[in-house]
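ARCHIVE CARD
CATEGORY: sequence design from structure
SOURCE FIELD: tokenized fold
FIELD CONTENT:
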């Protein structure tokens, strides 16, 4: 069964950002392309004197243990830009680069199985991300360092459309 899906991350919107994804599902596989942006919460920033807005585009590929729903494992790759500035300053610095990672989560489908779960669904997931080009910057004697490794937990809300032609 082939399906088209759209997803959004409400947590990104809560943190003054955005997150929109389009997915294509075929059998046990789901492929996703999306765009995102988020003002990083202070607990996620290595130096509390900085403000960071992260944005970018990404690709994901997931394998579901059961067709259409349940536990999945996957990989992702993003190209993003961090806009970094001291909270007390007006200047900012852009750091861009690739991030790769592994991910897992669970798809809770609300539609009927006889309709192949058309409709709303929820996907909590977590990723372990690696930033090979992580770097540091200094502004007004304050140091901000990007993390090479990070854990990214989130929640996506989605809608699955009717079946695509076989």
């Amino acid at each position: 069964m082939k399906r088209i899906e759209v997803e959004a991350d409400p947590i990104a919107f809560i943190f003054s950002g955005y997150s929109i994804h389009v997915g294509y599902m075929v059998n046990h596989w789901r492929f996703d392309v999306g765009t995102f942006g988020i003002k990083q919460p202070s607990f996620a920033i290595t130096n509390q004197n900085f403000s960071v807005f992260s944005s970018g585009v990404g690709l994901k590929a997931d394998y579901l243990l059961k067709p259409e729903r349940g536990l999945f494992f996957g990989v992702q790759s993003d190209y993003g830009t961090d806009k970094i500035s001291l909270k007390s300053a007006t200047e900012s610095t852009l750091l861009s680069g690739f991030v790769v990672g592994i991910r897992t989560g669970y798809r809770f489908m609300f539609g009927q199985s006889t309709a192949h779960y058309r409709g709303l669904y929820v996907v909590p997931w977590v990723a372990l991300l690696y930033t090979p080009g992580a770097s540091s910057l200094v502004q007004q004697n304050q140091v901000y360092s990007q993390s090479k490794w990070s854990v990214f937990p989130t929640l996506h809300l989605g809608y699955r459309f009717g079946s695509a032609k076989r």
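CARD ANNOTATION: The beta strands are 2-8, 18-26, 29-39, 50-64, 70-86, 93-109, 119-130, 136-139, 142-145, 149-163. The longest helix spans residues 10-14.
SHELF: design records, drawer C
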